[in-house]
């Protein structure tokens, strides 16, 4: 039987383009999830929170960590065949709901400047708040800017 880390790795393998080097390895995911302030949510193909009873395998995941009243969206991924169904937005909304339960007032994320997920983040209410010039180094040696986004949660 697959555990949460197995499901996250399965989705990440399908969803993350290796060209960008953004996927975490199994050790990074499992080490993060044993920490008390790191969280993951799995989503079903309908966009609801996934459980083994709902369907065979989840369609997407989001991972975050929180400290004090702030949270960072670390990773989000949706299987390519399940994209365009609102699963990414549903995951972010589920993250917002759980963050509110933890009394989080603001959520941050960082992405490479050409990440197509930017449209999703903006739809969810994130706004750009900063830029790190040439922050990411690609396998080719090229550099890319990092963009920091934030959203304030209304309680």
Overview of this protein structure:
The protein is of the alpha+beta class and 155 residues long. It has a single domain (4-152), classed as Gcn5-related N-acetyltransferase (GNAT) (Aminopeptidase, 3-Layer(aba) Sandwich), CATH 3.40.630.30. The protein has helices spanning 4-15, 26-33, 87-101, 118-123; strands at 38-43, 60-67, 70-78, 106-112, 127-137, 143-152. Strands 1-2-3-4-6-5 form a six-stranded mixed beta sheet, with helices on both faces. The longest helix is centred in the middle third of the chain and has 15 residues, at 87-101. The model has no long low-confidence stretch (mean pLDDT 94).
Output the radius of gyration.
Answer: 15 Å
Tally the helices. Answer: 4
The strands making up the biggest β-sheet line up spatially as: 1-2-3-4-6-5
| CATH architecture classification | 3-Layer(aba) Sandwich
SSE layout and pairing:
Elements lengths: L3 H12 L10 H8 L4 E6 L16 E8 L2 E9 L8 H15 L4 E7 L5 H6 L3 E11 L5 E10 L3
Parallel strand pairs: 3-4
Antiparallel strand pairs: 1-2, 2-3, 4-6, 5-6
Brief account:
With 155 residues, the protein is α+β, with helices and mostly antiparallel strands. It has four helices and six strands, in the order ααβββαβαββ.
Tag the structure with descriptive keywords.
155 residues; globular; six-stranded mixed sheet; 26% helix
């Amino acid at each position: 039987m697959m555990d949460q880390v197995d499901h996250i790795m399965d989705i990440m393998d399908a969803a993350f383009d290796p060209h960008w080097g953004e996927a975490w390895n199994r050790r990074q995911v499992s080490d993060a999830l044993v920490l008390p302030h790191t969280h993951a949510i799995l989503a079903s193909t309908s966009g609801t929170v996934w459980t083994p009873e709902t369907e065979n395998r989840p369609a997407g995941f989001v991972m975050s960590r929180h400290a004090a009243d702030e949270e960072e969206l670390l990773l989000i991924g949706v299987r390519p065949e399940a994209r365009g169904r609102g699963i990414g937005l549903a995951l972010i909304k589920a993250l917002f709901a759980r963050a509110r339960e933890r009394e989080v007032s603001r959520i941050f994320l960082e992405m490479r400047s050409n990440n197509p997920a930017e449209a999703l983040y903006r739809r969810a209410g994130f706004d750009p708040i900063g830029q790190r010039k040439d922050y990411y180094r690609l396998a080719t040696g090229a550099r890319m800017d990092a963009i920091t986004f934030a959203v304030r949660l209304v309680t």
